[in-house]
Each structure stands twice: as structure tokens, then as C-alpha cells.
Amino acid sequence: MTTTQVGSPSGAPAEPPRRGLGHVAPRHDVEGFVGSFMRELNYGQGVSLTRSSLNDRYLALARTVRHHLQSRWMAALAQQADDQAKTVCYLSAEFLLGRQLDNAILASDLDDVVEEGLGQLGLSLSTLRAQEIEPGLGNGGLGRLAACFIDSLATMSVPCVGYGIRYEYGIFRQSFEDGWQREDTDPWLALGNPWEFPHPEHAVTVNFGGTTEHYEDEDGATRTRWLPDWDVQGVPYNYMVPGFRNGRVNTLRLWSAKATRGFNLNSFNAGDYVDAVRAETFAEKISMVLYPEDSTPQGKELRLQQQYFFVACSVHNFINQVLPSDFDLHKLPDRVIFQLNDTHPVIAVPELMRVLVDEKGFDWDEAWTITQQCFAYTCHTLLPEALEEWSIELMGRLLPRHLEIIRRIDEEFRAEVAAAFPGDEAMPRRMAIVGDHTVRMAHLATVAGSKVNGVAELHSQLLRDKVLPDFSALWPEKFTNVTNGVTPRRFLRLANRNLSSLITEAIGPGWVTDLDRLRELEPFADDPAFRERFREVKRLNKATLARTLQSRNGIEMPTTGIVDIMVKRLHEYKRQTLKVLHIVSLYEGVVSGRLAVEDVTPRVFAFGAKAAPGYAMAKQIIGLINAVGATVNADPRLDGRLTVVFPPNYDVTLAEKLIPAADLSEQISLAGKEASGTGNMKLALNGALTIGTDDGANIEIRRLVGDENFFLFGLLEPQVEELLAKGYDPASYAAADPRLTSALDLIASGAFTGGDASVFSGLVDNLLHHDRFLALADFSAYMEAQDRVDAAYADPEGWTRSAVLNVARCGFFSSDRAMREYIDKIWHAQPVVTSL
Ligand code: 26V
């Protein structure tokens, strides 16, 4: 990447403001709000109130609210340039933000002003907020975690820039056709996006392809130059990341690809006008769409282009545009830490080396010392197939200079390993960054990172012992754990206003930024009046959910009985099939007469899950859930006691409705496979009890809430290992539990597919013969745990007591705490005082 600037150098304003006043603060009262809203409508949208569309009104409202954050934002940006604080650059291919309007209103403390002001105009906030399309710029846990983290850093006044990609199309929209998943594009920008600020004048040029050449510099030293083949521009779009009522606003900077002016046509048919325009679409394809796979990397060229694209823009932006122009880069580690959110941004490591060595004239060792201090790596998976590797051929073709740099890092690293473990020849080979055919990005991240962390205790331990054991033997102090967290602003304060009010009434409002204070709720678990109010909150939330599902999808949802929720990406390791087998077994029990219908505890089973479009088995499972749901919901023999609801297109907005209504949280992955989970934390914080395996953060949730307030079942991780080692024989589990045989037989018989036995035969066959995730091995234990759930639910007072204790004891799972741990163990950054 060159340092050529399309716009003004170093991103500085064109000329200094004439007066000391850099900005004007908006009025924080109803009259001021109404005036500002009307101006936005009339002059921003160009319509009168009477002729305005819903979208006009939403956009005017969003811009009005946005003004309140902007003056703080400008102050924060000015300060960032002035002070010497260390900035956390959170590099992530995904930020799954969710809707912005409510969060902006909350952060700027405008709730009452907005309600009142809109009321005066005869408008309703709830109608306008429904108009917002959420930016679905992430697949699931990893992307949502990034969004929670930047929320917490802003709330803690820690300087942070989130860097990512402004995908034109976010995660696909899911619908069901005869129960099968259908994907449509997500044109989330179509109606206008009031939350972003494009800065084409600060576009960055990113190079690709070509060759490298060596030359002698004026001191006679051999240096390398990259002669790229083609380039694109990255245009930054800035988003405000407001802290909760603390006057701090950080920045999320998402990059959008644009063809360079005078597009470099070397590799195209130069001179052909039409081809040149086609080249433009070629360039702009880079940020066009989010890859919807979240576990099996496909090694696709476009994906590597995306990764390098956003990382090159971000490194360039920080070094050449955020830091002062005279900054001494030897001190870079004092001013920045680049946090690598999984391996997706790891190409930033050779990029920083390239910038320091080729562009800034550093010698190799000096540059490597700096680089190692500037990076840290978070791993988010345990599935070996999810670890990214790029073919050497592709890397060499797309990023020839980076491949050279990686090879040198690899050579020096292997020499270090050989010296540390003399005589062990296998070790350097196992640990190599460059393998026979591929570049192993997790190895590169581990070698380059000052720290490597997993996302829950068990995960970090398995990361050390199973995924990267050689590395942890070499550098034990490099490995650490930071258990994930979730932002209490969005997932409690905003999503569950009823519970929030009840909590605030009991213990005051301080919990919103100090979630450990939820502990003060513990005594209320023993207060029958409080418990009754807690139940009333759940009833209200269930009614709200039922209304939402009705109006969103025409789904009928009963509001009595256990609301049993399983929301997460569809993946075999998460074992949605185990949940289906439970439902099928209850159904089969009633239909066959084994269970009396009046003994079945009424339940609503709610699912939310997207399957990667190319993941056939996951799509089969979606088909099965819908087929079972259609049959169970329609069978009068069940007396309406069991209902399956599966609203399509689970996203952050829907999560905010489902989670507050939940009684039971399903966290049933095979032990040792779910790195952490974060839905588990959101549900527990909202007063759902967990039925879960000894996996990921479930372990820590259970330890905190207490065994008696958690339904544990299933194999432990070492038992899983043992079983797999001795040979898993699924059929033997089916034979040993007649309920399991009957449930599988019922599915295989075609009972849910109008008699067609072929539809799910592959799925059943897989469970019985090939399943790597041992669903059948945990079936009996799961059924037994569900019996415990029913028994517990039969005692409403005891259940509510447990639910209140779940809320009271889960303050640990705030992303504020997670950020504090990153700051202390990894980043060594400091909060700054924002002067307003
Ligand atoms: C991987 C890939 C690979 C192919 C291309 C697209 C793509 C996109 C995302 C991913 C990463 C998936 C990893 C992930 O989301 N892990 C989840 O991270 C959560 C936050 O740490 C954690 O709670 C979940 O347990 C973990 O599965």
C-alpha cells in the first residue's frame, strides 16, 4: 500500500476554525428537540411533516438524536490527537451492531425529551424505531462480541477505534419456504443510513498483486520494493460509538472499497473504456458482501482480499492519519495496541512490518520488536477446521511482499524453536507458520502477538493444551484467558426495560455501568413481593414477544408455560438436534400413550438460527425443526401444551425481544466445542435458568449462580475425549433408551414429512452412524435434566428465586469487566478524562 493521499494530508482539517468554537452543542430540551427535528425533516429530507413518509421521519429523528453525540465526538477526536493516550485498535472483520437509534437516545439521556417531543408532533417513538434496519455486519458471536467491546470501552472512556468493513450487504436475510431455509440479500443501506459519516477525502490506496524487487538504498543497504499490479481505494465511513452518559464518543471506522481514479489497468485490457468500467466493479466487489460461513473457511481469494483490504487501510489510517505527522514510530507500542479478533485480520502483522521496513526505513529486527509489542490475538474457536490457512500460491499471487515477510518471520521463528528444543526436529515443523502448502494464520498470530487469549476458562485451557500446545510450552506466559462479556446497556437496560426498572427500583441505577452491583439483588430473591413483580415482568415480556411474533411473522405464541429458548447459529456442535429429539420424544410419548397429556408441562420452544448457505446438514436440521414444529403445533392430542416457534431471520433486533421473555436457556453444545457462548450470558442476565453442558462459559455461569440454580447434564470434556478415543457407537445409545429409539424411528418413518421417509433419512443416518458431536450419547442425560426443569417449574416461587439469583450473580458477565481484564492483562491502556 502506498502512502499516497487522495485528500488532504494526515486527515487534518482544511483550515483551522476562525474562532475557538469548533462546534455548537444542541439544546437538550423538548422545544430544542422539536425545532431540530422539524429542521431535519424540512431541510434534511425536504418534506413537510404532513407529507413525510415513515422513513423521512425516522431519518429526521435519527439525525436529531445524532447531533447530541456529535459535539462530544468531535471533542474526543480533538483530544485523541492531542494527548498521549494509548489507543486500542480493535481489528475485526465483523461488527454486529444492532439498531442504533435506541442506544443513541439512551447514551445521550434523551429518552424523555424524545418521547415528549414526538408526542407533541403526534408521532410515536415505537413506530419510528421499527423503521430502522439493523446493520447485520456479522455472523454471530464473534461480531456481536466486537460490538459489545467497543460499547464498553466508550463507556469506560478508553480510547478505541474499531476497524472493520462496511459490507454493502450484511448477513443474508433468512426466510422459510416449506420449512427450508432460503437466503436473500440484505440491502441494509437502501433506505439511507443516518449513522455514518463518509470521508472520501481521506481514502487510502491499497495495493495487490505484482512482484517485488530488491535495490540498494543510499546507505548501501539492500531493501525491498513492492511493484503491485492493481489497487483499490478504501473510503472510511465513521460511526459514533457513544459511552453511556459519560460524554465520551469513540469511533468505529468501516472501510468501503472504491475503484481508484484512473484505475490502474496494467492487468486489464488497457485502453478499453468498457473494460475499465468493468474493472471498477471488480474493485468494488471487495467490500460488497459479508461471508456467511462462520466455521469452515473456504480459502476464497475474495475473502483474503477483504482481510488485507481493511487491515491495510486501518494500519495506514492509524499510523499516517491518527498519529501526529512527526510521531517517532519507535514509540509505537506506547500509543497503540492492535487487537486481532480471531485470525481474520492477522495479515496486519506482515503489513506493519512492510510499512516499517519498506516505507519507513526501519531495519528488520527493530521493526519486529515493535511489531510484536503492537499486536495481541484472541482465538474464538476450538474446531480445528475453523483455523484459517491460506494457500501459499494464493498469498504469493495476491500479496507477494507479505509472503516474503511471512517466510522470513517463519525462518527466524523456526530457528528459535530449534534452539529452544535442540534435537527435536518434529517440533519446528509442527509449529511452522508456513506449512507444505499453506500459511497458518493462527501460528502467525501466536508468534507475533504479545498475548494470546481464549474467551472462557475452559477454552483458554484447551487452547493451551490441545490447539497450540507447542506454543504454550515455548511461551507459557504468552497465554491468558479473558472470559467474554456482554454489554448491559443493550442487553439489559434497553432490551428489558421492565426488568431494568424493577432492578433500579430495588438497588438504584448504578448497575448499568457497574454490573457487579446486581449482587445487591440477592436478598430480594427471598422477598415474595419482589418475586411476584419479577414474574409480572416475565409475563409482560412474553406478551411483548407474542405480539412481535404475531406482527412480524403471523406466528401464534402462547404466553403461558415455560418459554424455552435456543438461539444461536445452526451448527452440529451446538446440537439443535438434541433439542429436537427432546421435543419429538415428548410428542411421541403423548401420541403413543406413554405420557399422559396432562403430565406434560406446557412449553413454548423458540428457535432462532441461520445456517451457512453451503452447510447442507445445518439446512437439513432447519428443515427438521420446522417440520416437527408444523406437526406438533397442529396435533390436537397435545392440547396446545407444546408449541414450536421458529421465527426466521434471527438477528440482534429479534434477540432483544426473545431473550427478555425466556424462562429456560438452552446451552447444549458438546463439551469442549463451544469456545464461550455469549447468548448464555444474555439469557442468564435476563433471568432465564440454563440447561447446559459443562462447556464454554456455561461452566463459569454455573459456578457463579450455584449448582442448584442451573440444570447441568452431559459428558464432561475429558469423557468426550475418552469416548472418541475408544470409539463412539451411537447405535448402542439408541438401543439402550427406548425413548430415543422411538423418537428416531418417528422421524425416520416420515411422520413429520407427510409419510415421505426419505426427507430426513440422511440426518437420522448421520446421528446413528457418523455424528462427530455425540448427540445420542447425551440424550438420556438431557431428558433427565429436562425432567428436573419441569419439576422445578412446578414450584413458581422456587423457580423465581433461582431466576432472581441468576440475575444477581451474573454481573461478572458484563463486557465492562472483560474490557478491564484486557486492559490490565493485555493492553495496558488507560482511560482518559474527556473535557467537555
Ligand atoms: C469464521 C469464519 C471462517 C470462514 C469465513 C467467515 C468466518 C466468519 C467468522 C468466523 C469465526 C467464527 C468464530 C466465532 O464466531 N466464534 C464464537 O465466538 C464467540 C465470541 O467469542 C464465542 O462466544 C463462541 O463460543 C464462538 O463460537
TrEMBL record:
InterPro entries assigned: Glycg_phsphrylas, Glyco_trans_35, Pyridoxal_P_attach_site
Cofactor (UniProt): pyridoxal 5'-phosphate
EC id: 2.4.1.1
Post-translational modification N6-(pyridoxal phosphate)lysine, affected residues: K682
Enzyme class (EC, first level): transferase
Stated family: Belongs to the glycogen phosphorylase family.
Annotated protein name in UniProt: Alpha-1,4 glucan phosphorylase
Provenance organism: Lapillicoccus jejuensis
Lineage: Bacteria, Bacillati, Actinomycetota, Actinomycetes, Micrococcales
